[in-house]
Amino acid sequence: MTENTIGTAGVTLTDLGKRYGPEWAGVQAVEGVDLDIASGEFIAIVGASGCGKSTVLRILAGFEAATSGSVAVGGAPIIAPGPDRGVVFQDYGLFPWLSVKENIAYGPKRRRLPKNRVSELADRFTETVGLTRFADKYPGQLSGGMQQRVAIARVLANEPKVLLMDEPFGALDALTQSELQAELKRIHVETRTTVVFVTHSIEEAVFLADRVVVMTGGASHGVAGHVARIVTIDLPEPRDVTTPEFNEYKREISDLVHGTGDHV
Ligand code: ADP
Ligand code: MG
Prior knowledge:
Blueprint (H helix, E strand, L loop, with lengths): L10 E10 L6 E11 L4 E5 L6 H9 L6 E6 L2 E2 L7 E4 L11 H11 L4 H14 L15 H13 L5 E5 L7 H18 L2 E5 L3 H7 L2 E8 L4 E10 L11 H14 L7
Parallel strand pairs: 3-8, 3-9, 6-7, 7-8
Antiparallel strand pairs: 1-2, 1-4, 4-5, 9-10
Magnesium ion (MG) binds next to helix 1.
């Protein structure tokens, strides 16, 4: 175990469904999702807009209740947001009036940890995301990529067992995206935290994940969002996006997402 290991837990989704609105006029956003995520696994969820990716993630976060089926973290049913799960969205959600270090210290402070422990966690995760030199800067003084690093560190400082990310790099330029992807990969190896990562970028999913969950359907297709296939990415690390093997995975998943494959 490395010094930065912060605990981990498996996640189980069983016949998960979510309907928005009433029975007679609502939208069945997601239906019949079964997924067993191992402790420390990196899962990516891909699919076209509206197929229910964010819905699944919000249910895992506890922001939203399932209307059928169940979800559990470390065997315990998810009924509300909890410190065992850390959530990172596309918008960084930082406190602009707090410095980088203060933003990262915010969670440990709220947990009323002893002062030296708060400081230790803040320093450690400021370093983990490579921002030690910027610890006293404010979010407004940082680039988008750096702000997202702060957002990740802030969540890690709460020592979650599961990291839930919804298109976290979607608003960043391509170069910053690939920097942060590599960074997240390193953080995952270091912390062994379970990651559930939603993206519409197939390349990002194949680069990052142990397994890619491909979702299809969605209200605009007249069928509820569901899992079309789960693809295990059997590629050596570090992954090279230029190899034929990498591109074969991209093509396979793209066919599934766009309904041009052998499924339906
Ligand atoms: P994705 O993240 O894959 O783009 P979402 O989970 O956001 O998909 O949405 C899935 C479906 O559920 C869409 O048809 C969307 O319009 C619908 N939906 C999402 N959130 C709500 C909501 N709060 N109320 C009603 N419908 C919603
Ligand atoms: Mg979404």
